Target: rRNA methyltransferase 2, mitochondrial
Amino acid sequence: MSGGGTADFFYREAQRLGYVARSAFKLLQIQKQYKLITPGSSVLDLGCAPGAWLQVACQSLGPLKNGGVVVGIDLKKSNLTSSLYQEQKVKVPSSHCDSRVSTVCADVMNLPKDEVRKLSPQKKGFTVLLSDMCPLVSGITTRDAALSMELGMRALDLALGGDRSSDEPLDVEQQEDDVGVLQSGGHLIVKLLESEDTKELMKICKPVFRKSSWLRPKATRSNSREIYLICQDLH
Model:
């Protein structure tokens, strides 16, 4: 484990409290400030590996009797032999999770919206969409930012639906897949690597959510450009 004292603190705290990653504290802070996940919420977690946000999301639902559901999606590959790779679901952490948490192994970038919607209760969509997705960082700032933006736009596309600016008529199949999976009144959290382009995402979100704001959680490493877009109450 490398990094400064603050990073070491969150790493140690995650181990002490049974979280599978220090990133749990980022969502814990977001929950403390915004209270987006409430009892009965249906939560979709994009890029859920290794499962820390699944843990916090489930905790935020309250006791099992309160209901709610947490669905995580990630593309996880397990190296079985030197020449064979097999896709496997992210394991649901044993601590801080219960029967309301499940995971799906899939590529978020290619997963149709109607397939995602089928994962929600009564197939009516989710009330909270979390995206902690991050590209494999190359160290090339502009490239990493562009890849992060692509993931962020995909999360937004899943939440809201396709291109709203186009006047072109859609066929029936396109219309079905153009409907976003986030319910009216729902909330969206998207992680991005900060750049000039991230402002574009805010421009898209401001008119369609009651409130949109930026947050850099305290658990973020000092040398990281990570920033979170918090969107509340979809119109």
